[in-house]
Amino acid sequence: MKTKNPFIQILSNFRNFELEEEKLITKHLELNNYSTRDTFLKTGERNDQLGLITSGVFRYYFYDENGSEITAHFMDVNEFVGNVACFFEYSISAGTIEALTDCEVIQISKSNWDICKNEIKDWEVIFQKIINNVLIKKTNFQRSLLNNTATESYLKFLNYYPELSNKVPLQHVASYLGMTPFSLSRVRKTISTL
Amino acid sequence: MKTKNPFIQILSNFRNFELEEEKLITKHLELNNYSTRDTFLKTGERNDQLGLITSGVFRYYFYDENGSEITAHFMDVNEFVGNVACFFEYSISAGTIEALTDCEVIQISKSNWDICKNEIKDWEVIFQKIINNVLIKKTNFQRSLLNNTATESYLKFLNYYPELSNKVPLQHVASYLGMTPFSLSRVRKTISTL
DNA sequence: GAAAAGACTTGCCATTTGGCAATTATTTAA
DNA sequence: TTAAATAATTGCCAAATGGCAAGTCTTTTC
Fold this sequence. Notes:
The structure is a homodimer. Chain A is an alpha+beta fold. Chain A has 9 helices and 8 strands. The longest helix of chain A is centred in the C-terminal third of the chain and has 24 residues, at 123-146. Chain A binds a DNA duplex through helix 9.
């Protein structure tokens, strides 16, 4: 039996599709490869692609009011890559999405997405639910960072995203957790001697 | 001309409703009053009500792994009150929603919501979008707290939720921002002398 | 309206984290 | 393969925040 397209697999968690529907969806998807440091989306651009990561890691970063670079999200295997707010609202991205490793992505353009929306029942709701779940998870995690020490935050990160710590440079993890690279380096040292 | 029901008003930002639809929706809504310190939802309960706040403020709080009480959300006028994750998934709430002032709420039960879902086109998508927007806003705000000093965080809070600072006890704002009440008290002192 | 309970402020000191410079390790590019 | 650039570590000190106790102010309750 042929292995299912991972993109459809994710959607299938919310509803089963007829073979005809699967074909239609597949026809509107595109496989893309990114090398380390390639960008999926740049600041100021409209985000007209949404992709499911089948290998690799991306990060989303922007510059805050002091000009400091802040890594606000990581996007890992089996997660969607894209600035979802921009994708759905045709708005302009305030940050950049960059590949931290070589990546493979199954992606759909906004125009193809709109076609599927008209053809496939529940299409929009399914995506909304997926995004909702991601956001709820993310909000809860960020909330937990606010009331923790640096060490606790990093331990939670390790627990929450066990895959990421090996793939992502320390400086970006530090930024993501809201601490300096110096602090994170010290935290790691402390943890390693436990 | 009769003033529109605020609940329908909010939904109308996403789609216009026929008069018949509005009647149907209204029929499934209920007006409720809460006194200060009444609970909308308790830890361990299933959240089968979703409400639009027409006056007053609620907070959502839970106890973290150290047993400290953490205020994770405020819900103000024109926002929805409820644990949305629980509402849509019939799951059990990990925290309590409590009225911080006397409140008036237009609410809908899950069973009535389900009825509307079958009767009103786009019903589910509209709610998903509303929740999505709230979550995106919340995530961005929380993210900004991670890279700020206590004073900056409080100034952002004032800017972001200008109404709330007068209505909400200091201790809960402090918890929300991830600092101690002592620190927030000092921050306020500093700010007042600027 | 008085007593009690709870919330907020402030001082003092401890702890945590940040900032910067110097050093080492790792990655990139020629 | 080597030189250059970038990233990570570590020491030292400064700044920010936390913890606790005492005192004041506010709210609740009887």
